[in-house]
Amino acid sequence: MEAVNTTKRMTISDIARLAGVAPSTVSEVVNNDPKSRVSRKTFEKVRKVIDKYNYVPSPQARALITNKTRQIGYLVSANATLGLANNYFSMILAGIERACAERDYRCLVNRYDLSSLEKFVMPSKLRQRSVDALIIAGYPGESPEMLKSLNIPIAVIGLTNDEQFFQLSRDTVKSYIGIFRYLAREEHRKILLPYLGKVEHQELKKAIEICNASLETPLTPMFVTEDSPEDEFKHGADLAELVLSDARYRDCTALAANDQICRGFMCGMHRHGKRFPDDFSVVSNNDGPMCEWNTIPITACGTRTAEHGYIMGNLMVDLLEELKTPNQIKEELRRLFLPEPFIIRESSGKAPKINLK
C-alpha cells in the first residue's frame, strides 16, 4: 500500500486510490448504501483503509456525492413569542434533535418568515442544498406553493390544511370539546377566546357548535378576532384589561387560550386584585412545564410535545432513507391524530356567583 501524507485531511479520492477502487465505491461503503452492489471482499478492503486512516467524510463531500446532506431543517415562525426560547417550540426541538442524533443526522434550526424561507433552504452554492427535509412548528403561513417549490419533504407539527405536507397534530376539535364541556359543568357560560390563527379559529367555532348541541344552556363564545401581537404575554395582560373595562366582556368568567396568553392574563388580573378560580377560570389549550409549575398551576390539555418532535424527526429520516413510503408515513400520522387528555389544576373551578366589576 502506498505511503500517504497523514498530516492533511484525507479525502474520498485518497481512500479510493489507496484501496484501488473508484470514489463511488468508497461512497457506497461509507454510507452503507442498501442498494450497493459492492462485493463483500471489496467492502472489507475499503473498510480496512477507512479504519486505518480514521477517515470521516466531510458533510460537504458526502452531500456532493450522495446529493444528501443528512441534515433536517427545523423552522419556527419569526412571529412566535420568545422564538426558540418558547417552551412549546423548544420541546419540539428537543425531540427532533434526539431523533437526529440517534439516526446520524444533524438538525439545523432557524426562525423564518415566508420572504426568507427559500434563502434558508436553498443556498446559492452549486449542487449543494442546506437540508434534505423541513419540519415546521406551528402554522406554515399562507404561501404553501412557495414551500412546495422547494421539492423536499415538508412536515408540520401543528395545523395545516394542505394534504401535500406531512402533518402531526392532535385532534384540536375534540380537545376543545373536552375543555368546553368541563367549563359548562362548572357553570361557565361566557368564554373569552382570543384569536390563535385562522385554522384554529375555525376549529374553535366547530367545537363550540358541537358542544352546544348537547347543552340545555349553550355557551357563548366571546371571540377577540384581531391578530395577536408578537408578545403573547402582553396580549394576555391586555385581555385582562379588556375584561375589566369593556362592558361586552364583563360577563366572561373563563379564558381558553395558549399557555403564554394565559400567564399574561393571570398577571394582568392579579394586578387588579382578582383571584383564580374565585373570580375567573383559566384553561390552556396546551400543557407543559409553564402550566404545571406556574404559581397557580394552570388547567390544560396535555400535549406530548417533545414526543411529537421525536416521532416526526424519525419519520422524516425513514422517508429520506426510503424505509417508509410517503403513504405509510401519512397513515402513521393519521393514527396519532387524537384528542389530548385534560388535566384539571388550581386555575379553574366553578363560575363566580357575581360578575366582575
Describe this structure in words.
The protein is of the alpha/beta class. The protein has three domains: 12-66, lambda repressor-like DNA-binding domains (434 Repressor (Amino-terminal Domain), Orthogonal Bundle), CATH 1.10.260.40; 71-168 and 306-335, 3-Layer(aba) Sandwich (Rossmann fold); 172-302, Response regulator (Rossmann fold). Helices cover 42% and strands 14% of the residues. It is built from 14 helices and eleven strands. The chain has helices at 12-19, 23-30, 40-52, 59-66, 87-102, 117-121, 144-148, 172-185, 198-212, 232-245, 259-271, 289-292, 305-320, 326-335, and strands spanning 71-77, 106-112, 133-138, 154-158, 166-168, 190-194, 220-224, 254-257, 281-284, 299-301, 342-343. The protein has a six-stranded mixed sheet. A five-stranded parallel sheet has the order 2-1-3-4-5. Helix 5 links the parallel strand 1 (71-77) and strand 2 (106-112). The chain is elongated. The protein starts with 11 loop residues before the first helix and ends in a 14-residue tail after the last strand. Residues 122-128 have low confidence and may be disordered.
